[in-house]
Amino acid sequence: MSRSQFIENTLKTFFFAFIVVFVAAYIPYKIVTAESHTDIAGIGRFHFMGYFLIASGVIGYLACFWNFIVDAKGSPIPGDTQDLIVRGLYRYVRNPIYISAVLIFAGEALLFRSLEMIYYLLGWIVVFHLVVVYVEEPFLRTKFGNTYERYCKSVRRWRPRLKPPGKDG
Question: Cys staple from 74: which of 34, 44, 52, 80, with CB 3.0 to 4.6 Å?
Fold first, then answer.
């Protein structure tokens, strides 16, 4: 990959990251600071686990962004990759970027003890699933053919494997 392509992919990734920050930080901030916010007191001290979930999600996002720029020679913008990503977290699960978002939203729901954030999380889970099943997977099947089919057989869509597939996978 040329230096200019690397810079272009990095800029596209930062643009995508800006959208992610809007969806994962600004909107949740507005939700939890609204007057109508419902505090779930029953969570108690368990809400501090939210920090761990948020940190895990952010680390997952950063790892996926790196895979998009370096391994896929593209950006997370749909249709922008040249190669199928099968390294990093993508060795364990096919959609780690969405799982990272779910971890962030779940962490925010716990941290802020927010019923509305639980609804927000559930809404995004439905959206992610529909996008993956009806948009991304058909596109990737068309673009990468048998390579993507083999990948789907060896790596699960949502539940991470504990061990990556072997050399034959």
Answer: 80
